[in-house]
Amino acid sequence: MARLLEHINVPGINTFDVYRKHGGYKSVEKALKTMTPDEVTEEVKKSGLRGRGGAGFPAGMKWSFLDRKSDKPRYLVCNADESEPGTFKDRYLMEKIPHVLIEGMITSSYALGAKTSYIYVRGEYMYIIRILEKAIEEARANGFLGKNILGTDYSLELYVQPGGGAYICGEETALLESLEGKRGNPRLKPPFPAVAGLYASPTVVNNVETISAVCSIVNESGDEYAKIGVGKSTGTKLISASGHINKPGVYEIELGLPVEEFIYSDQYCGGIWKGRKLKAVVAGGSSVPILPAELILKTAKGEPRLMSYESLSDGGFATGTMLGSGGFIVMDETACIVRNLWTFTRFYHHESCGQCSPCREGTGWMEKVLHRIEHGHGHMEDIDLLVDVAKKIEGNTICPLGDAAAWPVASAIRHFREEFEYHVKYPEKVKNPKHFELEPFRSEKVLAGV
Amino acid sequence: MAKVTIDGIEVEVADGTTILNAARQIGGEVVPPAMCYYSSLKDTGGKCRVCLVKVTQGSAKDPRPMPKLVASCRTPVMDGMVVQNITSQEVLEARKGVVEFLLINHPLDCPICDQAGECDLQNLAYEHGAAKTRYEEDRRTFEKIDIGDKIKLHMTRCILCYRCTFVADQLTNERVHGVINRGDASEISTYIEKAVDNEFSGNMIDVCPVGALTDKTFRFKSRVWFTKPLDAHRNCDKCCGKVVLWTKGDDVLRVSARKDQYGEVKEYICNECRYDHKNMNDWTIEGPRHIDKHSVISQNHYEKIDMQKLKLDIERQIQFQKGKQLPETNQSPA
Ligand SMILES: Cc1cc2nc3c(=O)[nH]c(=O)nc-3n(C[C@H](O)[C@H](O)[C@H](O)COP(=O)(O)O)c2cc1C
Ligand code: SF4
Ligand code: SF4
Ligand code: FES
């Protein structure tokens, strides 16, 4: 099966001509000329492709929920707002090989019956917006966009919209509000976008990577795509690897790759830098629960942990985590879990839209308490206070940002409570921001295993 | 029509009714509190989260429980739905959490706040709040500002229920204020240097559940419980002209719209009635305003008991106590 990044190193692959020479836009030809829209949707269903934006919802199923009976126009909106700390794969894809997204947008729009589609790009990615606009112009000049594409009776307009400059605008309903020109506050659901999305019309919102994957699904069939991967985790996934590793970057992996191989093999992260030991991993972007070394390499049952939706969530939140958006953040033994958590929480505090009370007030509260603990002004009660505040946010908010803020706090304390206690007990030792770089925190539990 | 059971009490309501409004049809303790929902303003609700309830059975057709607590003010009932409000420990815990969140950054300056005595947050905190705060950080503060010559915005007290922005959208012809910034730095604000100034803007004061928007013509004049509220009306060509006069002796200290049992205004009034007729002679007095006996404003005002209502209350109480015995409504949180 063709990979998303297969031709990434071909010089000039960002231009239409070179991309086309390497098999680009074939899926548009195949779909528009030889398939009905429903047949395309059927292939996507068969492929088992799951949303790559974070929640992992099956794409084909989402497409089939789209209200096709409504007399309103239908829209496809690509979520390119990528703002989750630790996630930078969409940027890489759009920058290096923008036509794969444009191709995926055309094929997917055809399947959904959308006549106007949008790519909502993170506001800070201004240079990417220019790259995409140029790619759209090229596609249009070659007859792949606009009226009567390739001489068929299918017409499509594709627009790029710069985002509002807020993480919350990546939440799909906030994105739609923002796209409509309003304040990016998430909407209450139901109704879901499939019924009333953009301009109250049926809408599908998908991540950049999800839409790009549609090209090879159409070219080579859904069944062919489903052969890659394990179980319900089919296909390949872009992983943004960062942190204390020898080779940070974006990697395309086959789902099902063992985590250990991903971290230590030279083909991927190349092991922990400076010959240090692995301490913890945040496997799917800042929102997912952090896991200590022994639980990220092996599940609680002792089986090797795999890079797949199911394996990473094996054990629930007690001993597992989530694949999320694939932002793989690795921490070595000198990392301070408390400091790292404070940084994450500061982000959620800053990015909460402020609509609902638990998230608006709770994120700020957690940040302030963590700031105190990290700087040596914490009390023992603060640790349970944090657990309680996180619990009162989780599940009680309008959108999942509340959960995303609560999970890292709950999991860090679940797996690294001793380290929080250490900060309270030895305020003098943690005054220096580099405290664990000087002398790694020693705990039997944390450093066992690797 | 849909049959729904709330805390063991069954009620039949029109399709599309929300859980909150179904509970209000039952009345009494099973009614969830509401800080952002406002029945006479479209699209309000869903934000404050104090009205969260547990749906233990989605409907007769699909009896699965809902995975999370839901905002009762925005969740429509289904036929056969079973809901727990005060019979669920999980709901009470979550609500306590929400009240705590609403209070951590609230200034608690009730002793100098004009809203004291008729403040929804005070009532809510009295019922669900903790006696002690666990919050030891600095509280968020804002400067007080005038928005127009009649309204004082005291943003520090605001709970961001968004009700006033809906008033602006739905009752006035040009919206000049809204929410700026995000998260806990969000604030209600007018467009630069714009004053909130149009016929119906004064209703923002009545819909505000706390003392964030107060009537400048009444500021610091009197504690509300020292005033005598009278129902009164006048012929007005702009609005219904039905108001409450808040009086002391022969002086009219304040004019407001009439709030119902849940503190909601159903008939809004214009600014002329509110600000420009502070004279008893301008009004036809209907009689003393009925104030709920739980309100601090009603202290020392005795009223004859409505036997019919008392009977209904007792019947509901009996039904509710029976409902509490049911095993599934007595579960502890998972
Ligand atoms: C706070 C928040 C931020 C999000 N940011 C993004 C984002 O930047 N990009 C993205 O694709 N999905 C993001 N999502 C997920 C989207 O809401 C949505 O689930 C996704 O775009 C659906 O696409 P998919 O099914 O292809 O994954 C975010 C969700 C939340 C709650
Ligand atoms: S959970 Fe946070 S970000 Fe989401 S709607 Fe509520 S306040 Fe806004
Ligand atoms: S000023 Fe009052 S009505 Fe407006 S959002 Fe704040 S609390 Fe609500
Ligand atoms: S009243 Fe329902 S969320 Fe505020």
Automatic annotation (TrEMBL), chain A:
PROSITE patterns: COMPLEX1_51K_2. Keywords: 4Fe-4S, Flavoprotein, FMN, Iron, Iron-sulfur, Metal-binding, NAD, Oxidoreductase, Quinone, Translocase. Pfam families: Complex1_51K, NADH_4Fe-4S. InterPro entries: NADH-UbQ_OxRdtase_51kDa_CS, NADH-UbQ_OxRdtase_suF, Nuo51_FMN-bd, Nuo51_FMN-bd_sf, Nuop51_4Fe4S-bd, Nuop51_4Fe4S-bd_sf. Residues 338-383 form the NADH-ubiquinone oxidoreductase 51kDa subunit iron-sulphur binding domain. The keyword Endoplasmic reticulum does not apply. It catalyses: a quinone + NADH + 5 H(+)(in) = a quinol + NAD(+) + 4 H(+)(out). Its EC number is 7.1.1.-. GO terms for molecular function: NADH dehydrogenase (quinone) (non-electrogenic) activity. Its cofactor is FMN; [4Fe-4S] cluster. Belongs to the complex I 51 kDa subunit family. NDH-1 shuttles electrons from NADH, via FMN and iron-sulfur (Fe-S) centers, to quinones in the respiratory chain. This is NADH-quinone oxidoreductase subunit F. It comes from Ohtaekwangia kribbensis. The lineage of its organism: Bacteria, Pseudomonadati, Bacteroidota, Cytophagia, Cytophagales. The gene is nuoF.
From TrEMBL, chain B:
Residues 90-129 form the 4Fe-4S His(Cys)3-ligated-type domain. PANTHER family: NADH-QUINONE OXIDOREDUCTASE SUBUNIT G (PTHR43105:SF10), RESPIRATORY NITRATE REDUCTASE (PTHR43105). Residues 2-89 form the 2Fe-2S ferredoxin-type domain. Pfam families: Fer2_4, Fer4_Nqo3, NADH-G_4Fe-4S_3. It comes from Ohtaekwangia kribbensis. InterPro entries: 2Fe-2S_ferredoxin-like_sf (IPR036010), 2Fe-2S_ferredoxin-type (IPR001041), NADH_UbQ_OxRdtase_ferredoxin (IPR054351), NADH_UbQ_OxRdtase_Gsu_4Fe4S-bd (IPR019574), Prok_molybdopt-oxidoreductase (IPR050123). This is 2Fe-2S iron-sulfur cluster-binding protein. Keywords: 4Fe-4S, Iron, Iron-sulfur, Metal-binding.
